[in-house]
Each structure stands twice: as structure tokens, then as C-alpha cells.
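Supplementary material to the annual report.
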Amino acid sequence: MGKILTVGEIMMRLQPLGYKRLMQADTLEVVFGGGEANVAVSLAQFGEDAVYFTKLPKNALADKCVNQLRGFGVDTTRIIRGGDRMGIYFCEKGCSQRGSNVIYDRANSAIAQMNADEVDVDALFKDVTWLHWTGITPALSDNAVEYMRKILRAAKLKGITVSCDLNFRKKLWTREKANEVMSELVNYVDVLISNEEDSKDVFGIEASGSNITGGVLSADGYEEIGHKLMAKFPNVKYVAFTLRESISASVNNWSGILITKEKSFKSKKYTIQIVDRVGGGDSFGAGLIYGLVNNLGEQQTIEYAIAASCLKHTIEGDFNITSVDEVMKLVGGDGSGRVQR
Amino acid sequence: MGKILTVGEIMMRLQPLGYKRLMQADTLEVVFGGGEANVAVSLAQFGEDAVYFTKLPKNALADKCVNQLRGFGVDTTRIIRGGDRMGIYFCEKGCSQRGSNVIYDRANSAIAQMNADEVDVDALFKDVTWLHWTGITPALSDNAVEYMRKILRAAKLKGITVSCDLNFRKKLWTREKANEVMSELVNYVDVLISNEEDSKDVFGIEASGSNITGGVLSADGYEEIGHKLMAKFPNVKYVAFTLRESISASVNNWSGILITKEKSFKSKKYTIQIVDRVGGGDSFGAGLIYGLVNNLGEQQTIEYAIAASCLKHTIEGDFNITSVDEVMKLVGGDGSGRVQR
Amino acid sequence: MGKILTVGEIMMRLQPLGYKRLMQADTLEVVFGGGEANVAVSLAQFGEDAVYFTKLPKNALADKCVNQLRGFGVDTTRIIRGGDRMGIYFCEKGCSQRGSNVIYDRANSAIAQMNADEVDVDALFKDVTWLHWTGITPALSDNAVEYMRKILRAAKLKGITVSCDLNFRKKLWTREKANEVMSELVNYVDVLISNEEDSKDVFGIEASGSNITGGVLSADGYEEIGHKLMAKFPNVKYVAFTLRESISASVNNWSGILITKEKSFKSKKYTIQIVDRVGGGDSFGAGLIYGLVNNLGEQQTIEYAIAASCLKHTIEGDFNITSVDEVMKLVGGDGSGRVQR
Amino acid sequence: MGKILTVGEIMMRLQPLGYKRLMQADTLEVVFGGGEANVAVSLAQFGEDAVYFTKLPKNALADKCVNQLRGFGVDTTRIIRGGDRMGIYFCEKGCSQRGSNVIYDRANSAIAQMNADEVDVDALFKDVTWLHWTGITPALSDNAVEYMRKILRAAKLKGITVSCDLNFRKKLWTREKANEVMSELVNYVDVLISNEEDSKDVFGIEASGSNITGGVLSADGYEEIGHKLMAKFPNVKYVAFTLRESISASVNNWSGILITKEKSFKSKKYTIQIVDRVGGGDSFGAGLIYGLVNNLGEQQTIEYAIAASCLKHTIEGDFNITSVDEVMKLVGGDGSGRVQR
Amino acid sequence: MGKILTVGEIMMRLQPLGYKRLMQADTLEVVFGGGEANVAVSLAQFGEDAVYFTKLPKNALADKCVNQLRGFGVDTTRIIRGGDRMGIYFCEKGCSQRGSNVIYDRANSAIAQMNADEVDVDALFKDVTWLHWTGITPALSDNAVEYMRKILRAAKLKGITVSCDLNFRKKLWTREKANEVMSELVNYVDVLISNEEDSKDVFGIEASGSNITGGVLSADGYEEIGHKLMAKFPNVKYVAFTLRESISASVNNWSGILITKEKSFKSKKYTIQIVDRVGGGDSFGAGLIYGLVNNLGEQQTIEYAIAASCLKHTIEGDFNITSVDEVMKLVGGDGSGRVQR
Amino acid sequence: MGKILTVGEIMMRLQPLGYKRLMQADTLEVVFGGGEANVAVSLAQFGEDAVYFTKLPKNALADKCVNQLRGFGVDTTRIIRGGDRMGIYFCEKGCSQRGSNVIYDRANSAIAQMNADEVDVDALFKDVTWLHWTGITPALSDNAVEYMRKILRAAKLKGITVSCDLNFRKKLWTREKANEVMSELVNYVDVLISNEEDSKDVFGIEASGSNITGGVLSADGYEEIGHKLMAKFPNVKYVAFTLRESISASVNNWSGILITKEKSFKSKKYTIQIVDRVGGGDSFGAGLIYGLVNNLGEQQTIEYAIAASCLKHTIEGDFNITSVDEVMKLVGGDGSGRVQR
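Predicted assembly:
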């Protein structure tokens, strides 16, 4: 198996300790995260050969970011250094009826301002056999749409498998713009990942009979959406959904479904006491790619992806610092949290 | 609308981090709080023009306290500086079957020792249209009974609306003394606030059919108590109860009821994963005042007050650092804690 | 009543703050703990005259450990100082589906390498009327088997009551070795304590009809095991079980049963939001000894032991920093966690 | 005396704890600071009626900033809310031979993008008798040059005294641009403040015989520069210099000189063990304004300003949290740091 | 050698981290300290059998205090529990030209309100051969003067050696009151300890030719004062002075002199980079007692006492956590701070 | 230029925050360090291609260690995983007259127990042109002597340049054993590094006229020692000394000398306010290798090495996180610590 490349923005994440509000915080914890970087880190923890591509400025903050990615075993040698700044986001963790609050300060980041000609696709794709991206990247800027188009075309030409997480961000672009851009770019995609809302937000394709804020989600409805998506994008072989039922900011139900043209595969459903839900979807994507790349079979793949992302919810920060053994233990049914000694 | 004045004691609160016991704590977090100050801060977050009155010594600890109140937008210019010390309380946060533990060290505070003649009621009430106080203040000392009497009389003469939270504190006075004093002072009150226990503790008026430590509370019983209170205090137009069902120190059910002579208005009931329950009642009082002052209508007022105080339970410290928008979002039904991005 | 002696290893415990993984932790919290030391500390909090015996090296880490034990009122004057090192363990706290993770670094500790002749049993047992040990101690080394044999024989000769917690540790020895050694040493025991798994692990005696990782435990099955244990060890007068139902790493059900030849006494069952479950069994042992020593009666003894250990789950660290009053309040039914003020 | 208005940018400052490098920091301390805001806060601590004007976005970070300023007693009611972001800077504290390191991320801040027409000079100057600004503000953007010109013209028309700290920032503009803009704007200034380098950087006017990195500075040379500056800007009545001799990042000598057309006034020189040198110049400016506004006389004014800023170097963060009493005690000669008890 | 008893008040000390001002501190470090308790802890670290007597309330804060003293090996069994509160003091650490700032909140402490009849002098002095007290204790209240008189009389009757540190506290009493009370109580004293100021403050006996805030102290002058003190109090055999030269709050010179009727013994002088100077005098007292009790000889005794207290200045908190070996190493001349490895 | 390989032990370092003693510390900071690993990290910061070889167990602690090394850009792919444990050391930072205190717990580490046959020298030296080791490694065990002999022989055969830092550790072996082993192994060395004491400790070769604890060191004496060392080890081309003058644990003078057969090159001397002196010598070694590998010339090389290690003393932890630019700025004379902005 070759290298798995992910492409996108990584931001500095600043967060009050515990459940303090930003107003109350004298110190902020610093981690780094971003949809595609999170997938790369998670894959590296699973032992995969993960390469992450972005553009970061030449300063100590970006050095710190690169050191962390490299520390987790991600290949950072293809990252371009230059530009003005890296994106920042402030995250205030929610609890019970109070939702988490995110303040983005990501405009004018190096990766948002990067030009398509800065990307040398041949160097970028050296030894790569899988490309993962999300809907956040083209939402960054018009430049980003352009270089993502260039990257995706090259991937297709090189016969690389492409996965995409729709990841709609309403603070970055409108539903209309998202629809227009993604309707083009998803044509290059083989494996399409979505949460319970993104398909509707981006393409207006809705899950019948589900009420997201209310809670219980209908897996059947998502099977239907999956087929509609495959109809719209004939290149797509797999559609996978994460199904989050938000009981509160502290407790969520979490399950998934993997859909092929022929059949659907539903995962177990976990009730999770949340430590940190940011990056939950990304850890699902990493688990899904791991399962497909390692030929676990569809049922085991969706179980693996959901178990991996279940564990992510118990881990601070964006990154899913979990090994294959730990995921497999949960897939095998041991979610009781007993101490091993 | 004019200014809303609250009058009482504010203390330094010292607390171990997380769930550590005092015995284990090498560092203590410092915040400030007190029933009436908490109401003032909450009202200021709602955009109201809140004035807080107390007496604080001339030292750096009290300066720190004033800076914090002022930072939250409370008018602190009427605070008197002098006296020996400010009250302190140590708070050990409980969890599951272990209740929170509070050690008060508040005797001889400046506000407890203040004399009635130090209070210039004309200056104090300048532009004020609403006065809020709680049963803690007259419990501080005989001096305090005297200046509260003076303040309440002046408020009545000036046509100011008066709200009072019964807030019985058995570590400050006996039930008998409380009954005697409050039976006099509540005559000046228009809006009376109580939790599920205070009416019994102060006036011996009981909710039939409720078992407080056991859990489930009967809203009907509280309607009855409300009417008895209005019978005893004919000036009272509204009685409001918070109804706390303590499943454990970590999980409570929380609802409220607003009672007029004609009708009762019950709120939704929330199941809360508690971050910090201190100040829960005060945030209810602030929400209630906000609703009445802004003419939300009785049903919306009790929903607002309960939603505001539900959110308070998810926030560290005494103060309810929550905006009208956040409360209204919860009133509108979104308590699922989804991240906005 | 005389002194209660406990004998075993105490380790330095290093742990990330909150729910951070070891990989993420820049700082580690330092506490000390070990089965028998935990029992001694808990008994000292209950007002008993607890003596703790171990061997610790002559360095500042061991000084720190001794200071902490002494601070909690444990008599540390019989501890031998010398040897190379004290054991260390790293503990990563679990949450929800992610279990806690423990890394032991305890080989070659002073207490594991201590020789039987270093133990002066007459000095050790001065004024002692109760001896408590656990199955961890003989598992440390062959030396340890030898000095435990010497200690137990001396205890028997001196007419001291002996309690033992089976505490099987699969990282220290095999089931076969444990069976062999414990089959000998438990002959000296009057009160035998086990969790829901130890009897099977050590002696192959199983609870019929229970599925431990699944959850629900059958108290009847444990009654049966208790009788089998008393048949195997005729000297044993009491067998006590803790019955843990692990819903997740965050929530457990917790109850116990105390078995005599004639009758069994089941405790209430608590659903616990866990702060720290390490030392839960030890706090049960301490509660049990407290109940028996103070003649609370069997039913009250098991209720006391389970309530004490329920509270331990809400307290950080190995030690159960809880007073008799706090335990009795919970035994009396007040587990709702209301603030006293 | 009327209000003292300061105008400029305030940034969020993020800093590792102690002497950690950014690369090592898992948490960052959050404070706020900026040349003109620092002056306002310091003046408010001295009991002056300080008003601070800037533009800040509508988000929780800016709310936090406003709360802090308001907490320190600064009038924040004239601040405009809107725009995209507030500036951020990361500060790594130096020690011994390692200098402090600052990373600015301030481009596109609300105040840099503000238009001159957003400024209502009549409202802005209500009750104001003194205006303070620094060379940082016009360096922010061309917009900023424009609104500073508008503000300064209005000040002149209203007869307001104007003080300016040259504060050259080579990361914001070139020496040429600075020279051009400041040569115009300083014409509106009555009191001109400079450190030992700014006059040369901005206007090319040099101190003869001083070697700044080497250490010892010649006060006589600065007297000469002062007179050259007054020759270039006839409106300037006072020129004041801070003279920093950097022994190392940990120890600096610190003194000042106040120059009028007739005479020069040199302060004592302090050798300072530095806690935080950021904001040192601003605290000097505040002290100078305090002295002039309160008619302390020139010698006492420069002593006050230097003593105030000496104390600032011992205080964490940008703000000089020091009272008039504390400064006066140091002016009076008590710098031995004895404990008062 | 028998037990060494110290008698006085211990307070909770709350302090910002590092050099933060109280205004800036969100968390406060908690330690305990008080002149006589500090001496007891230091003596226990030196291996002496130290007993500490005070009165503390029955609450978790005092439990914490007792646990810490006991942890350091001090015998706490003679402490009386009861009364309303324990004293608190807030300490803001100074640096460079900014002195440390202490806010006392110690009025109405249990030990200040204790009556002489609560003291059972026979139980108190069991096995005691040395009594140490300071001038702080009788300054607490008139009650305290009375019980100190009772204690000192009993000590004299029992032939116990008595040492006293003058420790004048101007926030507790006037120079006149101190003079009156101490002129009586010091008659019971054998070893009198003073810093460079106390003799003048309490008895008006001055060191000729020294300027304390300025810096350099004349040892000869202190010899003269010593003789004057011995003339006034014929029972006094030794007078010892600590001579602090405060260069700044960060750097002090530190030396001492021990005076007998026949001869004076001057110590080396250390230049100290201060970590925490609180308790510096107390650690000198403990060192002096250690030297006298162990017959080190006068010269070695004063060297030991000064070296011990020099080390105290490098240790956080009130307590001097230093062993005899560490002190002796410094006495022996190794103050270069090399790492041993 | 090829890769630079360093070989040795890396330990987990646990340290109280600030200047707390171990006795006082509730939390410990975790970093990793060891002589040869420190050199590798420093070289990687200088942009060199550094490879680090050791053996580490398969557990989360060692994973964390590898992640950190990898994060700093060190090639960790040649590290062998296996064995029982990694070494730990506890470090208590000194100040002023109190020296730092180190407690090693490194016995039985994986690298101490590694066998020579586990080392595949061909794989180990792939693309390597420089090997660095220290006297700590053969001191670990007899095994270690054996594999170091194997490694050094292979290096010699492959024509690799070898540097060695004598680094005597009296807690690991005796002077006699060190002399015997190092007298053999240093025969393979081209560049020999020593501090002011090691040559005497290991080979009994003394610097005439220097008094190390006293302070001032004679550079001439070290020239003489250098020549004696080159006489004893004819293969050695360069001898380099670090010359530390320990004024106190807080302030050291720091300089170096580089000696060839023909000439000696003395560096500037820096007076350093110490943040963390551990790793000071290692950072010198890294600087020296950088200078030699990059042909800076002898004078510039010793200046670079001393400046690099001067900066290390201002950085927390074992690793010298400093870039070539930062070192060159200091070499160029800018040690005044001015802020760049």
C-alpha cells in the first residue's frame, strides 16, 4: 500500500481549560487541528504512511505545528512554508444544555491565499495511492477552489483513490456556493463521507423522517440519501454517514452507516460521555479509510470507523490518539472501561 | 427603564480545581460571589443597567472584587469602602453521591458591620426603579436588619418595585429569627422568589406531597404554597419557585413555576449535567427580573428564568456569564449542544 | 481496640491532568498509593490507629511518600528505609468507552527485594490487634512470599485477626502461581475480601450466571462462591465481595455482599459518576474492617463499606479522604449531593 | 481636570508561562495590551479619568478585552464594535542572553480597517482635555493615517493638549514612511515621548556618543536630540526620553530625561530585575502625563514617570497595575523591597 | 535531649503564582505558616522532636493545616481544636524595586481568642526541655498576653530553656504596647533573637551607624545592642541578630551575629537571589536552637543558623524544608549550586 | 555532508514547577533528555540530519519520548523497541546557594540491558559520517561497554569521525572503572569534549591552578590538560573544554576553549542568569560538531559552541531549542536581550 495524502488547512486551536468560558480564561490550551490534518494524524496512529500537505508561514507558531504533526509520525516534508499567517480558532467547550462555541480567525491564512501554481502535483503525489480532502478546503477562497481542482484532476489522472468529507462550514461560504463548487469537485471522488446534515446543506438532499436537533435519526433515511448521492455522482462507490444524536453537549449517541450501490452496513450505536467532540467526524474518515485500505470488509470497516471516532470523543484536542489495538478492542465489544492491571 | 439595584454581601470564593477535596488542594481558584451581586452581574450580561451596593474594605482583595464586578459591566460607584474585611467562603465541589461542601468565613465583614446611617438612600436609589435583595442580607447581623429596613422603607416611599429571594441560610440564623425578621421585611416585597425548601424553612409553609432529598417535586404543591405566601403578604404580586430535583451532585432536574393570584405558569424541566450549581438560584432571580422588566409575559418569563439558570449550572463560578441570545436559544428548544461553525 | 497494621507496597502514581492521554501530558500529577497503604489511610481518616509497614529507599521521593502518609495520620515509624527504588505507576484516566490505562514500573522496588530477616515481627506487631494484607504483596517476588509467610505465622501465633483482599494482578504473576501461593497463605485469614473476578482468577471458583464485562451481576452467585471459599479455607469467618457493574469508564454500578456461614448481607446498589476508581476496592476493605472492629453489625458493616467506597470513586487519587460522618450520611440515604449552607 | 483620551489598537497577547519557548508551551497566558490602552489603564490606576478609543469586533474575545479594560476603571463606552478581528501577538519572554521574541498577527484588525468617517470627533472628545496617541496607530494602515489626522485636527481645534510616544515599529512600516507621516502628525503634539532609539528611527535625529546595544547612554546627547526635535516641531513644549541600558534580557538600567526649551531634568537611574518589560515605555508615558496634569513640577514629573515604569518592569502583562502611593514610595527612595507587616 | 515546644499562631497563606499581583491572580497557592510553626517544622526537618501548640477550629481548613504539620513530622497532638476560624494572610511576592505585600485577615482567630484556662501547662510541657515563642503571639490579643504569661511562668518553674524572637508586627500592636508587654515577658527568656529592626521597634534600643533601608549594616553596632539587651534582661544568655541588607526585593545580603556576655560571633555573609523570604527569620531561629541544643559551639551555631536561613530564602513557602546535611554542606563552603550526579 | 549519529540513553525527566522542592510538588513537568539525545535534538534544530540510536521499551511512555524526538526532527527510525523500562530521573532545580538535586532511577533500562548482538552496525551507520557518544553510555552496564566497543570499531572501520564527551557520572561507576574503560574507548575518538572536571575524574589529568567550586578557572591550565589528553590519545585532533564558573546556582560564568596540537582558541565568557543548566554541556557538543562539520574555523567554532550552550542555559528542559540564526546573533555580539518588533 502506498502513502495516503491529505490536503487542507491546519489551525492553531486555543481553548480555555475545562468548561470555562472564554471570558473567564486566563490561560488557553494550544493544540492544532483541521479536518484533513486530523485524518492524517489518525492514520499515522493506525500505522499508515500519512502525508499531509498545506501551506504554513515561516514563524515559530507554524514550526510548533509542524513539530507536532511530525511528532505524531505524519510526513510533513511536502508542506510549503511562506505566506502571512496561519489560521486560529478559539474553542469554548460546551456542557449539558450549553453548546460548544467556536470563534474562527482564519481569514488570510497562507493556505487560503496559496496559488494553484505553487502546487507541484508530481512531487505532491509521489508514492501516493489515496487522497483525502474535505469540503472545508475549497470553501477557504477562490484560490482554494482552483488548486483543489488542479489537485483532484491530477489525482484522477494518476489513478489515485479519492475520499472526501463534505464538511459544510456555513461561516466560510453559502449553501449556494458550496453546492456549485462541490457539485463539480465531488465528481473526482470515490468515497464520499457526510454527517447527518451535510448532504442537505451542500446538495439539498434530505434524510426523510429525521429530526436532527430532536435526536433520533433514521438509518433508513440515510440509505436513501446515499443512493441519491451515488446517482448524482456516478464515480462514487461508497457513501458513509456518521449519525450523531445530540442528547446534550455532554452526551451523544453515535453510529454510522456505509452504503454501496448494492447494500448498506449499519454500525453499532454508542452512547458517549463527551470529552471533546471536535474532530469526531475526521476520526471517522480516518477509520473508514483504514478499513477500506486494509480490506476489513464493509461491515467491519464501518464498525472500525465508528469505534475509532467513538474513542476520539473521549480524547482532548482535534487528534485521535488511538491505536488499532484500542479500536479493535472496542469493536470486539469491550466498552466497559475496565482498568487493565 | 431605570437602573436595577441589588444590595447585599459579596464574598471571595476559594475553591480547589476540579473535584479535588480541600485537603488535596495546593492551589485554589479565586472568584467572587454573593446572592445579590450574582443577580447584578447576570442582569448586566442581559444588557440591563445594574447597580450593586455593598460595603467593602480598602484593600487589594476588595479592589480585585470591584474590578471584576466593574468588568462585567456592573455599576460599582455606590459601593462604600471601609471596615475590616470582606467575607470569604471555601467551596469544595461535589460529584455523584458526594455533595459540595462550603466553609464560610464571613463573620465581621464590612457589610455585616455597616451601620444604617452609612446608607444615604437618596444617593443609593438615584435613577433606580427596581430593588432586589435576598434573605441572606438581614441574616448577616442585627445591623443588617436595621439598614435593610431603612432601605426597604425608602424603596417603598419612592415607588420602586422590590423583589426578594428568601434564601434561607441556617449557618447564619435560626428558623425562628428568620421567620420574625422576614415576616416584617417581606411586606415591602412585590416579587417573592423561593426555592423548594425556603418557604418551609423561613415561614413553616410546606409543599404538600414533595420529598426534596428523594427527588420528584409536585408543582401543584408549590402552587398552593405560593397562594399561602400571597395570603400572608398581600403586597406580593408574583411568587416564583425553582424546583430542584437532586438526582446526585452531578445531575439535577431543574424547573420552575411562576404564580400570580389568578394563574400559575410552569416551565419546561431540564436534566442538567452540573458544572457548578452555586448561583443557580440567583441566575433564576436575574432571569425572572429580566422577563418582568421587559414584559416577556408570564410564561415566557418563567421559561427565560429557568433556561438562564439551567445555563448557569454549566458555568464555573457564581456569575451567570450568559447573554440574552444564549438564553433565548435554549428557550427556543435548542439544548442539544451542537457546535456552531 | 488495638492498632490495625497493613503490609505491602506503596508506589508513586503519576497521572495526566483530567482526561489527557500520556502522549498529551506535559505535566503529571503525583500521588502515592498501593492497596494496603490505601487501607491504612482510609482507616486513619475513620479515626482508627493505623500502622503501615513497607520498605522504602532513602531518597527524597520516599521522604515525600512518608510525609504524605504521616500527614494523613498513619503511623509510619515501622517503615524500613533502604533498598534501591520505590515502585512507580503511570495512570491514564479513562472515560466513556475508553478504559483507564496503567503502566507499572515497579520491578526491583525495595519492598519487593526485602528479605524475611529484615522483618522483626515482635516490633512490627507491637499493640497490633488486626492485620490486613492483599494478594499483591506475595505476587511481588519470591522474597515477598517468604516474608508474608513469616508475618502471617507470627500474626496467627499472636492471636491477631487477619483480613486479606485477594487482589489478583495478572501483570505480577500467573493464575497458577497465585493459586499455589494464596492457597497456602489464605489459611491464615479470618476475613476474605474479593471483587467479582478475583476468586475465579486466583482459585478458579466462579460465580455462576454472571457476565462481568456485560454488566449485571448475580448476588446469589456470589453467595455460592463465598460458601465455596469458606469450605476451602475453614478459618475464614467472613467473605465479602464488591460487585462492580461497569456501564462505562465513566459510570459504574457498585454494591457488595457480606457472607457468613449462616447468612448473607447485601448492600444497597449505587450508580456512580466516577472521578477516580483506583483504590475503590481498598476503601471497601477499610470500610469493612471499620465496621467489624466497631461492631456495627453485618448489615450496617456492608452498607458502611459500600458507601465508603462509593464516596472513594468521587475522590481523586488512591486515598479515600472521607470521614465516618460523611460515610454515615450516605449510609443514612442522603446521596443527592445537596450543598450544606 | 477633564478626561484623558487615548486612541489606538489593543491586541490579545498570548504568552508561554515562565521562560518557556513557544515550541514548548502547551498553554498560553492571555492578557491584552497595546501602547495607548496601556497608558489608559495606568492612568486609571493613578485615579485619572481615562477614556480609551478603538474599534473591536463583535465577538467573545473582544468582549473579554473590553471587560478587562472596564474592570481596570477605563471608560470603554466610546469604543466602536464591528469589523473582522482583533490583533493578536505572541510573546516569548527572554532571559539573560536570549531576547524576548514577539510574533505579530495584527493585520486586518478592526482598528486598522476603520474609516475616518466612523469617528465622530465631537462625541469622542466630550469632556476630554488631554489626548494621547503613539506612532503605532498611523503605522497600522493608510486608513489609520487618515483618521489620526482627523482626530488630531479636531483636538487642536478644541484646545486639547496632545501627547505622542514615537514608538517606531519596523514590522509595521518603513523608516521613510514613518518619517513622512510623523513629520506631519507630530505638528499637533505638545508633549513628545521617545525611547533612546525612536528619534533616530523616525526622524534620523541621532544621539551623539551613545551605543545602545553596548549599554551606557549619554544623557547629554539626548538633551541635544530633544532640542533638535523642538526645533523641528515648534509646537512641542516637552520632550521626554526613556533611556534603557540593556545589560541583558534579565537586567536593565532605566532612567529618563525631561527636556524643555530652557532646561533638562534627569531622573534617578534604576537597575531592574525584569519580570516583564513590555509596556515599560507606555507606563512612562502614563506617569509623565500624570505628573504634568497634576503639576508635580518637571523634576518630580520625570522621577514619577521613571519610578512608575520601573515598577511596571516588575509586573506581568502589558498593564502597569500600580497606584500613586506605590510610585511615590519608590520616588521617595524606598526601593529595597522590604515586606510591610 | 527532650522535646522542643513552640507556641503561637499558624495561618493559611494564599499567594499568587510567580510574581503576579493579587489583582491578576485567578488562582492562589495555599500553604500554611506562622513564626512558631515555621520553627517547629524546621526543627523537625533537622531531626529534632518538635511539638507545636496552637488552637485551631474544627473544619477542613484546619484539618489540612494539621495534616501538613504532621506530614513534616511535627507532633500536633497537643493542638486544641475549637473556636471560630483560623487566621489567613494573602502574600503578593515582590521583585526588584517592588516589595512584597502582605494582607492580614487574622482577627478573631481561635488562638487569638483562646483563654489562659484552656491551657493545661502540665500536659503541654510533658517531656519538653526547650520552649520557643515570638513577639507575635502576645500581640494577638489581651488573652494571648495572659496565656503567654502563664506558659512562660510554667516553663520557668519547670526549668525549661526559653527562646524568643522579638518579631515586632506593627499591624498587630503599637510600639508602646509591645514595649510594655515584652519588657515583662522577655524576663523569662534565655535566648533572645532579633532582626536588625526589632530591638529598636520594641525596646527603642538602636543600632548606631546603620541605615536599614539603605543597605550596609554595622555588626559592631549590633554587638552594642546585644549588650544593652542583656543589661535590660539579665536572664538572657544569648542574643542573636539576623542582619538583612535589602539590595532589592530580589537580592539581599544576609548574615548574623551571636552575642554572649563575653564574646560575639559573626557569621559569613551571603548574597541571596530570593525565591521566598517569608520565614527567613524563623529558619534562623530554628537553626540557632539546633546549634545550641546540639552543642555545635557558638561560631558553628551562628554559621549553621545563617546558612539554614540562607537556604530558606531559596525555598517557596513559610517552611524551611532543608536537612542538616544540606545546611552543613553550605556551612562547609559549597554554595556554588553545582548539580550532584 | 552525511548524517550525524548519536548513541546513548534517553530518560524521562520529571521536575517540580519553578523552584519547588520535590517534597512540595503536586505536579511534575515531563520532558525527556539524555546526553546524546540532547546533542541530536540540538543538531536537528541547526538543520543537520541527526539520527539517534537507543533502545526503548514498547509502552506509551517510550512512544511519547519517540514522538518528541521525532517532532524535533530527529530520525528515530533506528531506535530498537523492547526491554523492560526506560530510565527516569527526577530533577529539583536549585537557586542561589541551593544546588539542583537529581535523583536517578535508571537501573535496568532497556538500553542498559541491550546486548551487543542486537546492534546491526551496517544498518545503524547507513549514510552516517559522524558519530557522537559520551562517557555515560559505557557507564550504564558491562553490556554497554561491549556494544560501545562494537559500535566504535565499526565506526573506525567505516571511516566515520567520532566525537566523545567524557561526561563522568560518579553515580554510575567508579573513577577506576571509568579510567579503565575510557582509556580503551577514547582511542577511537577524533574530537574529545570535557568539562572542567571530567579529565581529572576519568583520567586523573588535572588543571593546574584552578579551583572549581571557588570559581575562577585558568584557561591556560586547560590548554595544558588538552595537550596531555592528546598525548595519551594520539588519534584525538581536537580537545574542547567548557569552563563553568559557578557563582551560584542562579548565576554562572561560561566560556570554552578549543585546543589543537598547534594552537588554542578561547571563546568569549558569558555571565548567565540560569533558567535550566541541564544539557548545557550537550548543547556545547552539538555546537562544536556544527562548527566543525560546517567548517566555521576553530575560533568561530568555539564561539558558536559557547554561544549555543549559553542560550541553552536560558531554555527549560534538556533540549537546546535554538536556531543557527539565534546562535549567530549572539556570536555577533547581541546579548542584550532587546525585543525585536
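The interface with chain D takes residues 18-21, 23-24, 94-102, 104, 169-171, 213-215, 246-251, 277-278 of chain E (CB under 8 Å).
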